[in-house]
């Protein structure tokens, strides 16, 4: 499958490397106005276009991966879909909830598939956790605690990444956490939240905390910061990024139900030997996740799925509508933080 990558930044280059390695895909074009992207395209011996329309006119791609800044997701995604190119859209689906709705409408109108790039769902640990939850290993969800605490260097904060509504840990990082909470436990009905930008003073938040209520009655909390030091984040514990980030020996997610508890990414099930009783020591069991030599490359798994989606062989694991529901939760979190009130998820 001939694939064009739109956006050659940090995440774009991850996708570029993945396509180049894939036996089922060929990188045919890079679309990015930056001079560095032209040099990268020359190094890879692929076509370079500073804008999308000439690439579409050239007819050299069967599908597109969009890894451009969030504000470009709607116009780039709409143009590709209307040209008949299936799209792998990096999360979030769009810059705003309204734009996400517009993009979902384009998918519905054109019938061209779109996969949202919540790549963690392709990870074997996440697949194993989902299977354990579905078979009732933890019972009914009572509560969950999710942490995403890591320190990003000053060089990271440039351009759109410091703008409110564009960058920040809510849209860039918490979108993954919200997606997984929904994936594991169903829809979130209401949230309350607080945010802070006291350390760097950028317009966008750097720290956020929120409480979410599920339709099932469960309650979860998430604490997130890219200005604090700590290993308690999926990014720096799971080892999924091929050496880009470390794999610290720590946990980042805790899920607790009526029968047992489950922590990630160590995939450890905690259960009582008999009826639940806090006076009894709990037993711990490491659940298998289908690989003996570390996690499989999650981006390669995502690309293989995208190729199947583009060939109409399978439906997208994360559809535009699914991505839109995660955006609705994030939108409610921002409203709750700004207003100080509990906000229902639309």
Secondary-structure element order, N to C? EHEHEHEHEHEHEHEEEEEEEHHE
Distance between the termini: 38 Å
Number of DSSP-assigned strands: 15
Q: What is the helical fraction, as a range of percent?
A: 25-40%
Q: What is the chains' assembly state?
A: single chain
Low-confidence parts: none
Structural class: alpha/beta
Number of helices: 9
Tell me briefly what this model is.
The chain has helices at 10-21, 35-44, 52-58, 73-82, 97-110, 124-134, 168-185, 298-310, 320-339; strands spanning 2-6, 26-31, 47-49, 63-66, 87-90, 114-117, 141-149, 188-196, 207-214, 219-225, 253-257, 260-264, 268-271, 283-286, 343-344.
Structural features:
346 residues; alpha/beta; 9 helices
Describe the structure.
With 346 residues, the protein is α/β, with parallel strands linked by helices. It contains 9 helices and 15 strands. The protein has helices at residues 10-21, 35-44, 52-58, 73-82, 97-110, 124-134, 168-185, 298-310, 320-339, and strands at residues 2-6, 26-31, 47-49, 63-66, 87-90, 114-117, 141-149, 188-196, 207-214, 219-225, 253-257, 260-264, 268-271, 283-286, 343-344. The strands form 2 sheets. Strands 14-13-12-11-7-10-9-8-15 form a 9-stranded mixed beta sheet. Strand 1 (2-6), helix 1 (10-21) and strand 2 form a beta-alpha-beta unit. The longest helix is centred in the C-terminal third of the chain and has 20 residues, at 320-339. The two termini are 38 Å apart. The mean pLDDT is 93.
Write the layout of secondary structure elements.
Blueprint: E1 2-6, H1 10-21, E2 26-31, H2 35-44, E3 47-49, H3 52-58, E4 63-66, H4 73-82, E5 87-90, H5 97-110, E6 114-117, H6 124-134, E7 141-149, H7 168-185, E8 188-196, E9 207-214, E10 219-225, E11 253-257, E12 260-264, E13 268-271, E14 283-286, H8 298-310, H9 320-339, E15 343-344
Parallel strand pairs: 1-2, 1-4, 2-3, 4-5, 5-6, 7-10
Antiparallel strand pairs: 7-11, 8-9, 8-15, 9-10, 11-12, 12-13, 13-14
């Amino acid at each position: 499958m001939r694939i064009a990558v739109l956006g050659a930044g940090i995440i774009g280059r991850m996708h570029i490397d993945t396509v180049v390695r894939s036996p089922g895909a060929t990188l045919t074009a890079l679309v990015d106005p930056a001079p560095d992207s032209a040099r990268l395209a020359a190094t890879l011996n692929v076509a370079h276009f500073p804008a999308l329309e000439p690439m579409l006119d050239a007819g050299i791609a069967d599908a597109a991966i969009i890894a451009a800044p969030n504000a470009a997701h709607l116009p780039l995604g709409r143009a590709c879909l209307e040209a008949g190119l299936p799209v792998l859209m990096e999360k979030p689906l769009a810059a705003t909830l309204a734009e996400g709705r517009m993009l979902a409408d384009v998918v519905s109108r054109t019938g061209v598939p779109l996969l949202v790039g919540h790549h963690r769902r392709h990870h074997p640990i996440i697949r194993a956790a989902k299977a354990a939850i579905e078979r009732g290993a933890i019972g009914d969800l009572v509560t969950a605690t999710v942490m995403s605490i890591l320190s990003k260097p000053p060089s990271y904060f440039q351009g759109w990444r410091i703008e409110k509504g564009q960058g920040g840990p809510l849209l860039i990082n918490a979108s993954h956490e919200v997606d997984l909470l929904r994936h594991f436990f169903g829809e979130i009905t209401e949230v309350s939240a607080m945010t802070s930008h006291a350390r760097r003073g950028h317009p966008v938040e750097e720290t956020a905390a929120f409480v979410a209520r599920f339709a099932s009655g469960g309650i979860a909390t998430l604490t997130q910061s890219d200005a604090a030091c700590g290993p308690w984040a999926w990014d720096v514990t799971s080892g999924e990024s091929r050496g880009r980030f470390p794999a610290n020996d720590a946990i980042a997610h805790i899920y607790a139900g009526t029968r047992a508890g489950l922590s990630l990414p160590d995939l450890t099930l905690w259960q009582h030997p008999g009826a639940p009783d806090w006076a009894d020591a709990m037993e711990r069991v490491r659940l298998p996740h289908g690989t003996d030599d570390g996690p499989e490359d999650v981006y390669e798994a995502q690309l293989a799925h995208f190729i199947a989606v583009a060939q109409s062989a399978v439906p997208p694991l994360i559809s535009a509508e699914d991505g839109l529901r995660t955006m609705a939760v994030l939108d409610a979190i921002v409203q709750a933080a700004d207003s100080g009130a509990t906000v229902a998820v639309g």
